[in-house]
């Protein structure tokens, strides 16, 4: 199953002190491609995870030096993300709230049209919800309409991505069945019979994150637990899955916020 914020084994973690704060970071090793410049990149993710991508033969001292050169920038980014996370509030489904779709942000706009039809559509950077009339059940109705819209979009997009990714999953025979179901702690799961279950909230994430979850669950058809063989199989079809997972985990609280 693809859990939210699941911990992985064999992490390479270090730390440093900036001001009065101890900061930890994870080093993700990348194979160096011949002819390309060796570089160390630093990413602060929305969940306040600090990830350092480095060549597989980079010295720990060189990595630490690169981190310390950007210590102030790292501290500022962490402070901004912490403030943001503290301000995540349950949605009230009113105009002006933020919604997500395929990794992009959209502003919710609610309008009343007595002669129209209650529906949801995306237009010009907005998620437009039309209601025939406003009443005391307005918030519940908007939430229901938006949830259904996301589910329909999710089913369509997941079908497309599954069809696109299946040729990579050479161990899978046939086309796995799947259903879309809201889950509080998982992005997806795979049954013993190879049926997939995917969280409709995943449609709010970038396409690459959707691909990661689908490939993760397809790997469970061959390896039913998170063994070393499982992670090797996942790495063979998505070498940079750790970066993608970290990106998805970093936005989980916003994507799952209802």
Series of secondary-structure elements, N-terminal to C-terminal: EEEEEHHEEEEHEEEHHH
The percentage of residues in β strands lies in: 15-25%
Low-pLDDT ranges: none
Would you identify the CATH H-level superfamily of the largest domain? Metalloproteases ("zincins"), catalytic domain
| SS elements, strand count | 12
Main beta-sheet strand count, sense and barrel state: 4 strands, mixed
Total count of domains:
2
Give the CA-based shape: globular
Helix content bin = 25-40%
Topology summary:
Blueprint: E1 2-3, E2 12-18, E3 21-30, E4 41-44, E5 50-55, H1 60-69, H2 71-86, E6 98-101, E7 104-112, E8 119-123, E9 126-131, H3 138-165, E10 178-180, E11 186-190, E12 196-198, H4 207-222, H5 228-237, H6 241-255
Parallel strand pairs: 3-5, 7-9, 10-12
Antiparallel strand pairs: 1-11, 2-3, 4-5, 6-7, 8-9, 11-12
Helix pairs in contact: 3-4, 4-5, 4-6
Description:
This protein has 258 residues and is of the alpha/beta class. It folds into two domains: 85 residues, no CATH class; 158 residues, Metalloproteases ("zincins"), catalytic domain (Zincin-like). It is 37% helix and 25% strand. The chain is built from six helices and twelve strands. The strands form three sheets. Strands 1-11-12-10 form a four-stranded mixed β-sheet, covered by helices on one side. Strands 2-3-5-4 form a four-stranded mixed β-sheet, sandwiched between helices. Strands 6-7-9-8 form a four-stranded mixed β-sheet, with helices on one face. It starts with a strand and ends with a helix. This is M48 family metallopeptidase.
């Amino acid at each position: 199953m693809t859990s939210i914020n699941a911990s992985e084994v064999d992490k390479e973690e270090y730390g440093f002190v900036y001001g009065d704060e101890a900061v930890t970071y994870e080093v993700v090793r990348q194979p160096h491609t011949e002819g390309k410049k060796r570089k160390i990149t630093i990413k602060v993710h929305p969940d306040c995870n600090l990830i350092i991508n480095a060549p597989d033969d980079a010295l720990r001292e060189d990595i630490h030096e690169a981190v310390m050169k950007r210590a102030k920038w790292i501290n500022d980014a962490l402070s901004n993300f912490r403030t943001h996370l503290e301000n995540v509030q349950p949605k009230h489904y009113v105009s002006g709230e933020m919604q997500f779709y395929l990794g992009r942000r959209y502003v919710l706009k609610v309008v009343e049209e007595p002669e129209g039809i209650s529906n949801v559509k995306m237009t010009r950077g907005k998620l437009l919800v039309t209601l025939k009339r406003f009443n005391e059940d307005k918030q519940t109705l908007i939430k229901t309409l938006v949830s259904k819209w996301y589910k329909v979009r999710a089913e369509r997009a997941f079908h497309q991505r599954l069809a696109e990714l299946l040729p990579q999953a050479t161990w899978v025979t046939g086309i796995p069945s799947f259903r879309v179901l809201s889950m509080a702690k998982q992005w997806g799961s795979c049954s013993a019979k190879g049926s997939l279950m995917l969280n409709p909230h995943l449609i709010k994430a970038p396409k690459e994150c959707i691909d990661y979850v689908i490939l993760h669950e397809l790997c469970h058809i061959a390896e039913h637990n998170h063994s070393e063989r499982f992670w090797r199989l996942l790495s063979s079809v998505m070498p940079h899955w750790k970066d993608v997972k970290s990106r998805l985990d970093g936005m989980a609280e916003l994507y799952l916020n209802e």
